[in-house]
Amino acid sequence: MWHLETSWPAEQATLDTVTPITSALCNRVLQYGWRRCCLRALQALLRPAYRSSTDLLFVLPDFQGQYFEDAILRPITQETIDKALQAGDLCPAEAQLLTCFLDEGSRGIYAAVYGRLAGYAWVQDSGEYRFGRAGRLTIPPKVSVVKNLHVFPEFRGIKLGQKLNAARLAMINPRRTPVVFIVPENRYAIRNWEKYGFQRALEVKQWRWIGGSWHMKLTRLAKLPEAEPIARALDVTKKVRRGSHVGYEMLCLALRLTGIPWLLRELYARRKVTIINYHDPAPELFFEHIAYFSRNYSFVSIDKVARALERHDFSQMPPKPLLVTIDDGHAGNAKLFGTLARYKVPAVVYAVAGVVDTKRALWFECLRHEPDLLEDVKRSADERRRELLKEKYGHTDTREYDRRSCLSAQELHRFTSSGGTVGSHTLFHPLLDQCDDMTGEHECTASRSMLEGMLGTRVEHFALPNGNADQRIRTWIQKAGYRTCRTTRAGWATPYTDPLALPNFGIADTAGVRQAAIQACGLWDYLKMLTKGIWPREAHCCRAGQPL
User: Fold this and answer.
1) C-alpha angle 359/365/510, rounded to 5°?
2) How many other CB atoms sit within 10 Å of the CB of residue 322?
3) Would you say 368 and 375 are in contact if contact means Cβ atoms under 8 Å apart?
4) CA–CA gap between residue 113 and residue 63 (Å, rounded)
């Protein structure tokens, strides 16, 4: 039998005699209990097929605001994060996370002890808040979410967490309702929040089978009117998440069991460069994808690939080289930079220069809910496309909207400073094969000049919008002075691949890990070609000197 009421020296002596693994297991059992630990172990065994998470929503009813002030607590700014990173108080991944909090509109405070960053806490009043495995909540008006408090280990034991807690509640407008999401296992956090007067309002359970779409179930634990806006917002989220990718995941699992993806990755493409591209994936899915790729590939930069292609020599390439590219530079891409920094991925963001650092919108976002019309517009001449968008939606290339749809110049600066590369994706993302010579050449050259002026670095890489290309476009790209051009043609890059016709494999933004693995190894695209009657040999990349 274990006796919990032991003196500290005896307990310390006991812990010192066991291995670190046994000590960790004992601590888990003492903290969560046998029943909860056994349940978590069972969930870990079932994780490949079934994943779930549960969150409790706590609400502070009748909030009238409060006052708190302490000289060591100050508001977080980008300058604060940069100084803490330079001083070594934050690692690059932590700095990127805090920067993302600022970008999404969160407000933070930090504690400064002896001139060092000792801890921080955050509150979010608007925008999208993420919780649990895949939960997303558009924060309703008059609601503030209390989030992310951290005290560094060397500063614990001086009640710094209590000060940060009280201060972030004091940051909230009295006309708003403070809420907080907590996992049920965190009994200490639950006890602390209940001391502040927070009450359980909702239980939010999320689950999915075999990598399918996440489902959500809401259970009301108390009749609190302050919790109703959150319940309605989560109910809308639940309804939007319809459809499932279970069929795709089952198919991809079957394909992986054949061993063909392993043969393609480990043998056929071992000395070739695999190039993949994303658009605007969810951060949690992107994290899972990059974690998988880090175990099975070697990440390389676009500059290293360009130098190898110019020398026609891949001998300096690591085995199974992988180049990660991101098209369009959507505003949501800023939330991916933390994952890229954590795994040290030298990715490429192909930015649409005329939309960067503005509130302009990409033209195809107007047609996102009309896929048939979008396909028709893609086949129309560029002038006709512009006229149709202006007549039907009032959209022009320079029209400003309520919010940014693409990255800012500051975000691109931070991306390049952490090892990333920015390439050009034209000025306003027209389909170049539908443009006249003057417009097409201007889109290629002006976008490079604009990005170079914005970032203060050379922009030498280009990606074709929609992958459409012909000999005219190749001439424009050469005149603009780009070293490489990425297409959407399926295939791998070899030492004799044309640098202005780089092939690539597209990764679906909603793909599970298994589907991403099948798409990255090339099997997915080649199976699609075969179903369309196209022999894969025809889709291989161009050799140097051949037309696009």
Assistant:
1) 115
2) 20
3) no
4) 31
Which DSSP letter does residue 319 get?
S
Q: Write out pLDDT tens, residues 76-109.
A: 998 888 888 888 888 887 887 888 888 777 899 9
pTM for the complete prediction? 0.64
On whether the CB atoms of residues 221 and 203 are closer than 8 A, the answer is yes
Q: Which tokens in the block code for residue 93? A: 């991944």
From CA 132, how far away is CA 373, in angstroms rounded?
37
Cβ neighbours of 527 (radius 10 Å): 15
Residue 104: Cβ within 10 Å count: 17
Structure tokens given for 140 = 């309703």
Say if CB 493 and CB 273 are below 8 A apart.
yes
Token reading at 258: 């054949």
What is the CATH number assigned to the segment(s) 246-350+421-427+460-468+484-539?
3.20.20.370
pLDDT computed for residue 3 by the predictor: 34
Options 3.50.30.10, 3.90.1170.30, 3.20.20.70, 3.40.630.30; CATH for 50-240 is 3.40.630.30
- 3: tokens are 């006796």
- Measured between alpha carbons, how far is 433 from 442 in angstroms, rounded to an integer? 14
Domain ranges of the chain: 50-240, 246-350+421-427+460-468+484-539
444: closest CA among 420, 417, 473? 473
Percent of the chain with pLDDT over 90: 43
Give the number of other Cβ atoms within 10 Å of residue 188's Cβ.
10
